[in-house]
Every structure is written in C-alpha cells, then in structure tokens.
C-alpha cells in the first residue's frame, strides 16, 4: 500500500472538507475566502502532481505516470481557470455561495480519480463524483428555470449513460474475471480471436464515455445544457471535464483494450466523423453564442477523437496536444462570454457582441484570437492542434478522416468569422467594464494561444512522455 | 439441483416483475412490482452466497427507497393517460430498436466465452467455509478497496451538499418565526417602573394613545363661522 | 540583411499597430515607411548578392515542430527565386507604403492601416522565403488573413464587409486543396521540406495514389490551391469585389503580391510539377481560359478599378499558361514586370479617384487629362507596358510567354497561344478604352467635382515615378538574365526544368512572326479603341445594343456569381437550416417522460419538461448505442 502516491488527491479531499467546515461554521459570508482557498488548494495539488512519483497503489487501482501527470495538470488548470472566470459572475448574479468552489473542487477530485483510474470501479466512481458535482452546478442558479432544467436534463441523461457504463463494465468483468485494467489486458492477450462479450461490453463503456465528451450520437444534451447553465458553469463544462473524459477514453482504449484497436477504431472513426460534420454545420444557424460554442465544442471533440481513432502513438500525441490547446482557447473564449454584460444584465446573443471592436478593443482582439485559433488559422495554437491530428491521420492512411476534417474546419471557419465580423463591423453599445479576474484569464489564455507556435517544445515533450507511458 | 431450480424461479419472477414495472397502468402497482423485483434480486444474491448484499438490498431499497417512491407517486398528480398516448405513438420504433438490441445481446451471450484465468481471478462471495460473506466484505472494503470506499464516501458527501444547495432556503420570505431573545432585547419594548399605589395613568406620565375620535356631525354653520372671511363663497 | 528584409516589416507593423495610439498618426506612418524602406534596401542587396553573386543561402531561425520523426525548422531560404520575389515585394511595398501616406491622409485610423499593410508584407515575405511547405502555408494563410483585414478596412461599408468575407471564403476553398496537397506530400515523401521533397521526386514517380501517379495528384492539389489565391477562372470571383478596399491595398495585394503567390508556388514546386504532364496541360488550359475570360469581361466594365482588376486576372492567366508549358522562368519574369506596371496602374487609378473626389465610375469622368498631366502620363506608361508595346517592361515578358506557348507541345499550348493573342488584343483595347473614357472627351462629372480636380501631392507622385521606372526599364534590363541566354546561371537551380523540357531554348527559335504578333494585335487594339471611343463615340453603345445577349453576358462576368449562389451558397444554407431544425427544433414533440414529470411537481414546469426532449435525447442515445454495437458485431466478421 502506497499512501503517499495519492498525495495530490488526498490534499484536495482534505482541503474540500476543511472548506466545507469553513463555509458552514462561521456566521459571516466566507465565500470569497473559500474561493481563494480552493484556488490555492488546486495550485498546491498541481505542484504535488508535478512532484508525484510514478507507480501504482491500492492493489493496482490507482496509477500515476507521465500520462496522468499531463492530464491532471490540464484538468487542474482548467478547473482553476473556471473558478477564476466564475467568481465575479457569481457575485453579480447573487450566486456567491461557498458551495460553488467546493463543488468545483470535488469535481476536480473526481476528474483526478478518473485520470488515475486503473480499474473499472475506480473509473466509475471518479466519473460519478465528477458527474454528480456537474449536475448540481448546472442547476446552481436554482431560481432560473433554464438552469434547473439544464441540471435535470443532464442528470437524467447522465444517469442513463452511467447505466450503460455499468452494464458494459459488468460484461467486461464477466469475461475477464477482474476489473483491473492490467488483468483485463492480460485476459485480452491470452484469448484467441475476438470475444464478442468483451467487445460489446467495451462498446457500452465507450458509448458512456462518448456521452461525457459529447461526441455524436451522444451529443444531444450539449446544446441545451450549455445554454441553460450559468455561463461560467458552461465554461467549466466545456473545458476540464472534457479533458478528463478524453483521458479516460484514451486510457481505456489504448490501455487494456490496446490489442483490440481494430474493433473500437470503427466506432471512434464514426463518432469523430459525425461530430466534426455536425459541429461544423449545426452551428451555422445559431443566434445564441452559448449554443454556438456547444456545437463548436462538439466539433472540436470530433477532431480530438480523430487522433485516438487513428490508433497510433502519433495520433494519441496529437489528441493530447489538441486537448491542451482546446482547453486554454476555450476557457479564453468563454471568459469573453462571461464578460458580456450590459447594465448589469448578462447577455448571450451573438449580436450582443456588436461593436466590441470599438468599445473594448482589447477584449475584441482576444476574442478574435480565440475564434481564429478555433478555426485553425495559423500561426495560432489551434492550427497546430489540428495539424498534429491531421498529420497523424494522413500518416496512418486515414484519408476520409483527414479530408472531412479539413473540409469541416473550412466550413466552421464561417461561423467563427461571423463572430469576428459582428464584433468589428456591426454597431453596438458598450458592455459593462470587465472585472480584473477575467482580464487576467483573457491575457493568459490569449498569450498562450498566440505564442504557442514559438514555444511548442515543452508541450511536445510532455505529450511525448505521456504517450510513451500510456502505450509502453 | 435445488439451487438451480430456485435460481430459475427467482430469475423468472424478477424479469416478469421488471416488465410489469414498466407496463402496468397504475403507478402504484408499478412501485409494488418494483418491490417484488427487489425481493427476488435479494433472493438471487442469497443463492450466490452474498447474504450481506441480500439483506442490504431489502433494507435499503425495499425499506427506504421503494417506500419513498410509493409516497411520492401517491402524492403526485401525474397524468398517466397522456404519457401512455406518447408510448403508443412511439412504441413501434422503440420496439424495433429494442428488438435489435435484444437480438444482438442474445447473440453475444450465445457465443459467450471466458478469458482463461477468469475463474481464478474472480472473487468469491464466501472465500472459505469459516469466513462469512459479511466478514469477507469487511476485510476487503477497509483494506484493498479503501481508496474506492473513500471516493464513494465523497460521492455521498457531494450528493448531500448538492441536495442542500439546491433546496434549502435560509430565510423564506413569506414566513415569520419567533425569536424570544430578540423580542426581549428590544430597547423600548419593556419599561420598568415603580408606580405608587392608587395613582392614575395620567399622574404616572404614561400617555395613552387617544382613542380614535368619533366623527363629529358635520356642522356647516359652525364651520363657516370658524373660517371667517374665507372667501370661498 | 537576409533577416532584415523579412523582419523589418514586422517591426513596422508592431510599432504602428501597438504603439500607434501613443506616438500619433504621423509617427506611426513614417515608422512603418522607414521600416519598409530598410527592408527594401536589405531585399535589393539580398537579391543582388544571391542572384548575381550566385550565393544562395539558408538561414535557420528556430526549430519549430517535431512531429513523428519529422523535424521542421523555421528557416529563410534565399535562392534566386526567393530573392527575386523578396526584392520585388519589398520595393513595391515600399512604394505603396509611401503612396498611402498621401492617399490615406484623411483617414481617421491610419496606424491601423499601416499596421495591416506592413503585416501583409511580412506574411508575403514569410511565404516567399519559406523553406518548407508548412512555413509557406503560414505565409499563405497570413496573407489571406491580412487581405481580409485590408479589404474590409472600411468596415462601415456593407459592400466592403461582404467583399472581405467573400475573399476569405473563396480563398479558404483554395487553401483546402493546398492542405490536402501538403498532406499528400507528407504521405509521399515523409517530409515537407523542400530539399527532401525535391530529392525524392525521382523515387516518387513510381508511386501511385488511388490509381493515379502521386506526383500528378500533388501537382493538381497545389494548382487548385493556387487557383484560389491567384484568382483563376472558377475561383476568381473574389478578386473584382476585393476592389472595395482602399486603392493602395488593391495595388499591393491584387497586383503585386498576394495574387502572384499561386504563380510563385507553382514555380517553387517546379521540380515536382515538371513530372506531372497532364496537370501541366490542365494548368495551361485554365490559364489560357482565364486570360481570355478576364480580358473579355474587362472590355465592358465601368468601374476604373474593376477594369484593372480583370486585367490582373487576365495577366495571371498568362503566367499560368507559361507555367503550363514548362516556362516557369517566363512566368516569374512576367510576374516581376507585371508587379511594377500593374501597381503603377492601380496607384495612378488611385490618383485619378483622389482627384475626382472618390468617383470610380469611368462613365462619370472624362476631359481631365490637362488637369492632372503627371497622373495621365503615368497611366500611359502603365498601359503601354501592359499592352506589350515594344521596349516597355511588359513587352519582353509577355512576348516571351507567348513565344513559349507557341513553342510548347500539345494542343493546350496551341490553345494558349491563340487565347493569349486574342487576350493581348483585348487587353490593349480595354486599356485604351479606359484611358480615353477617363481622361479624354467631354467632362461627364458634375461641375462641382470638375472644379476640384487637382494633381496629387508629391508624396503620392514619387512612388509613381519609382514604379514607372520599373515599368519602363525592368523588362529591358532583366530580360537577358530572367529568360535570355544567361537564364541557367541566373536561376542557379532554383527553378528546375526536367531533362525532357527544352522550352527555354525552343522559345528562342520560333518563327519570326511570332514575336511580332502580340505587338501587332496590341497596336490594333489601341487603334480600335481610339476609333471607337475617341472618334466615333456613339458606336460602342450601338454595338452593345446590337448584341445585347453577349453584352449582358460579359457585363455580368459570365454569370459566375449567380451560378455559385444558385449551385453552392443556397443549397448549403438550406442544408444548414435543415440540420439545425433536426438538432434543435426537435421534430418529435410531445414525447412523454416519466422521470421528468416525477421530479417536476410544479404545474407550469411539467408542461415545459413534457415537450419530451429528454426522452427524445435518451432515445437517440440508445439508437446510437445499437448502431455502435451493430458496427462491432458486423465489423468483427470482417
């Protein structure tokens, strides 16, 4: 038993319990202090993750290697940025309760458990811890019907997905006699041919995970929930949990089922194609920018899945880099959405961005950078993300994927450009002054997006190490 | 032999009652069938030697969850006829999809195969003749599975926080509660005095609020007299 | 020096873009002009050193990528081809920057304009000095982006907005093919660095892709990419609309640099393209058709800038069919001279527009040549060079292009020669139509405008002189090196002709009437224009009335815009609306949901939930699952 290995999770859990006590006991409003405390705890956990030794713990249920390190850092960065983005919003909307940071903290803990999962049970529990927190924060603005509806919808569909996951897990357990990934891998390689039961179980698990990353055809909840949930919550939804679920998907597919690559590949190719096409086309008619971002995120997941569907080291590396770039670009773009507020009222229409080019040039510039990056225009970061996965697809000979990817990215450029067009070319009134916390997030993510091309080396190296750890 | 027979009987009832949960017209019946399903599932656990799980299932699911369900169903006014309408409309396509899935699963189980070491890897509900199922679970949960156990605990904690944050309202706007301390502490509410005996209220300096005066009869002439030279005539 | 030529424009862009607000308009302008001038000095000396000193160089700046055993560095590749382009781009851009100081003097946001202009130049330089396809693609996209910003510079104008969008989208179509070409190149050669690709061509000739020789497919994809940037027929629709941008932008982007990127790409990839004979035939065909098409449309347009835009389109057609017949040197030579005289024409047109108080319709001009004599003279020089009148720059390059087409093999080359001659006639005709309608005849502008007609300030005229020098002498001075007998040592291997390709020699040995033909038809065109517009001004109207169908066909630019709108834009929009309905508006309504109604006690909400969307979604999930399982089960058998 190696307790010290789980130090980051342990610290985060203890911080959560302490924050709970600190929130409940004093009579005063301590939400700001708890926000800061949770932020600090996340940073501390990130530092501990970086210092984490490699190995497994708890009879192989928990694993720590370069892959988990890469993904956990992303997850924690996403959660911390999500918290920063939400703070000011919550105060203005009267939602500044200490439970919000607490739920973010527990959801990050769930994501870390997911990323480190080396066992089907750990996978499920991590996923549930994450999901339960997400259901609650989706409905966090409980007096808003839309928010409550979003939370409920997500809860019901999420429960269905969990059911699928458990059913699939039971099939896998029935075949292999163990829930541990290493044992399952042994069982797979020891068996001649392709065991149907195992494969169908894997499909169920993949379907449930595809729900979490909102890949087609399990994407239907995404636009509704993104639109209904409070904007900073949507920002969080679209960033860290996606990364964690992708990590899990990658771990499951490439780890225990690595030898069945030809089986799961077909499903992922289909999901990737569907997501790219739907993300590109359905977003065109949108008027609500949160809905637009929902479809955009579906499309991005399609590109990311392309990396996994290719089934090569190169592809997985592309996937990891894609997620890293997507995370920062996305948080930045959502920071702009969170700042959309006029006369104290939050706005969600694309038209409400009109005139931003004149009234707030700095934010308009940042948004332009994010939109162009998402459209994949060089030399912004998003271009490299696409480049890595496309190259992997070409290298592996998956021409359909590459061609559809290029086509859909050309189509999706249209609606990203429309946002830019509205900002610069339409006339509109000024928004309220943006709070400092958002400016910090905007500047950080904006600089990352712009200057990624100059310093890609550390990211490349980290992703390479992660892939090496995963594939072995 | 008997165990196998019992298994099939319980399993058949379990499936039948599960079907009835979905199809029965009366929601109360649905819940009752659900309870029946739980009982049969518990019986299956017993056959497998997992007596602890069987009892927990009965206590938690039948004793708490299903009864709660029953209460809710009885208290809510749900228009089942409308729901049924949609069910009939979409029944064909639903049946087709369900049928395909069913056939596929049938096919999978028909060609089921186990991994070579599956039997040895699988955990036994009762590891030895002298170790009961409850003991075996206890030995595992707090040792090998402590990590998962703790995470499960956190999930329950989050569920609790979530329930509170979504429903609890600190100060309902439309109800007033009594707080004796506050009432007593009000500064002018209570005045201590030491009045001499036989003194009237006026002597003591206590001013009584004058009673609302009875409306005077309207005296036009008097009024006119008061406003001498008013000039509005 | 090498680095300076590329990075001075970036410096200028940063200064005027980021600090323009603090240092003021004047300082920002001159900062970017001075940076450009420094870049031009560097660029010209680099040109001299590389091209005449025969000292090609490659400069590494940073290691960029490391993807799957593929190392990419960001490097500046200076061979003769790149040096020619660098020299031309920096000089032309400097002239245009200087001109803009005067032209944009009344604009409220000048630093922004100069920042865009310098940024564009930097991106163009990135493109021409690229050492690998990715870097080239960076520049390629960068100039697309910068041109989007510049075309839409006057964003208050709705038409400018639309033109900018259109340019960007049409260019994206081209880029798509470029990306596919890049992907296929990577797949074939395992690298996208030029040196590796060029060395691997011999081996790759045996490789096939989907049944076709891979070299042909790659060449085709790159050509389709180039078609978008260089406005070849089919993807040309954005170019005339792009005239909504300020005139210096038209001169820089749509005459000298951006549109020639496609020609440059073809020349750069010459070692690969050489081995794709079928694609070369296709390029010839497209180029020749474009030359003819654009010239025919140019004859009837009435917007001064649009006429020149179509003429650009037509000249690009010449460059492409020169490439098609294998005479890359001739294409680059024509590109080089064209940059000078076409920029001169655009800037002169700008000067006219400036003088006419922003009037662009030539039907409302006329009779102004005495008032703006310098501009008039410049316009003449530009037009003479464009029409290919002897001893002007265009004469040498256009003549050689046509000689090469005559000497070329296959029916496409003959077709190109024919089309080229016809287009040369039409070019001369519309150029003089433009001159006569603009400068001569009775004034058709209102009195008020005519009073204000004035010569432009010196800051606008000096660049005109500079470019005029180029338009006068660039052809005569450089023809010996570019396409004359010294071409082999001049190009020094930066453009490759396959061993079976002797076009550069054969072009010198054509019958003696061939070099004369363009001149003759050019003069004939000029004479016809004089006859029709100077001496018999009523005749053109009558001719147009006599063949109304043809006239409308030309006036509406062969109906390309309408065709695209019907065939692509409308169906796509309809598809998007349909998809949106399916995904969003939910066709199936009223599907019940037990779980939702259990939870939502409140009366009003139940109704909302019972639109049944959740059940709908859940159902979709199950269908997806069944689909996946089926794929597995049937995929397993394979």
Overview in brief:
Chain C: It comes from Teichococcus aestuarii. The complex is a heterotrimer of chains A (472), B (233) and C (638). Chain A is an all-alpha fold.
Q: What's the helix-strand series of chain B? A: HHHHHHHHHH
Please report which band the strand proportion of chain A falls in: under 5%, 5-15%, 15-25%, 25-35%, 35-45% or over 45%: under 5%
CATH class of the domain at 1-77 in chain B: Mainly Alpha
Q: pLDDT average of chain A, as an integer?
A: 89
Unreliable parts of chain A: none
* Total domain units of chain A: 1
Counting DSSP H or I runs of 4 or more residues, the number of helices of chain A is: 20
The count of strands of chain B amounts to 0
Order of helices and strands of chain A: HHEEHHHHHHHHHHHHEEHHHHHH
Approximate shape of chain B: elongated
- Alpha carbon gyration radius of chain A: 21 Å
- Helix percentage of chain A: over 70%
Mean pLDDT across every amino acid position of chain B: 80
Largest interface chains and counts: A-C, 68 and 63 residues
Molecular shape of chain A: globular
The biggest beta sheet of chain B is recorded as:
none
Query: What distance lies between the first and last C-alpha atoms of chain A, to the nearest angstrom?
Result: 24 Å
Fraction in helix of chain B: 55-70%
- What is the count of DSSP helices of chain B, taking H or I runs of 4+ residues? 10
Query: What's the name of the CATH homologous superfamily of the domain at 1-77 in chain B?
Result: NADH-ubiquinone/plastoquinone oxidoreductase chain 6, subunit NuoJ
What features would you describe in this structure?
The complex is a heterotrimer of chains A (472), B (233) and C (638). Chain A has 472 residues and is mainly α. Helix content of chain A is 75%, strand content 2%. Chain A is built from 20 helices and four strands. In chain A, the strands form two sheets. Chain A has a two-stranded antiparallel sheet. A two-stranded antiparallel sheet of chain A has the order 3-4. In chain A, helix 8 (196-212) packs parallel to helix 12. Chain A is globular. The relative contact order of chain A is 0.10. With 233 residues, chain B is an all-alpha fold. Among the domains of chain B are: 1-77, Up-down Bundle (Four Helix Bundle (Hemerythrin (Met), subunit A)); 131-169. Chain B contains ten helices and no strands. Chain B has helices at 2-23, 27-47, 51-75, 80-110, 118-121, 133-141, 146-167, 180-185, 201-204, 220-226. In chain B, helix 1 (2-23) runs antiparallel to helix 2 (27-47) and helix 2 (27-47) packs antiparallel against helix 3 (51-75). Chain C is mainly alpha-helical and 638 residues long. Chain C is built from 30 helices and four strands. Chain C has helices spanning 2-18, 20-23, 25-52, 80-103, 110-128, 133-151, 158-189, 194-204, 214-229, 238-241, 247-256, 261-268, 270-273, 277-298, 304-324, 328-355, 373-387, 393-407, 411-439, 447-452, 458-482, 487-491, 503-506, 513-535, 539-546, 548-555, 560-585, 594-599, 603-609, 613-637, and strands spanning 57-67, 70-78, 208-209, 212-213. In chain C, the strands form two sheets. A two-stranded antiparallel ribbon of chain C has the order 1-2. In chain C, strand 3 and strand 4 (212-213) form a beta hairpin. In chain C, helix 4 (80-103) packs parallel to helix 16, helix 5 runs antiparallel to helix 6 and helix 15 runs antiparallel to helix 19. Chain C is globular and about 80 Å long. Chain A: It is found in: Cell membrane; Endomembrane system; Membrane. Chain A: One of its GO terms (cellular component) is endomembrane system. Chain A: Belongs to the complex I subunit 2 family. Chain A: GO terms for molecular function: NADH dehydrogenase (quinone) (non-electrogenic) activity; NADH dehydrogenase (ubiquinone) activity; quinone binding. Chain A: NDH-1 is composed of 14 different subunits. Subunits NuoA, H, J, K, L, M, N constitute the membrane sector of the complex.
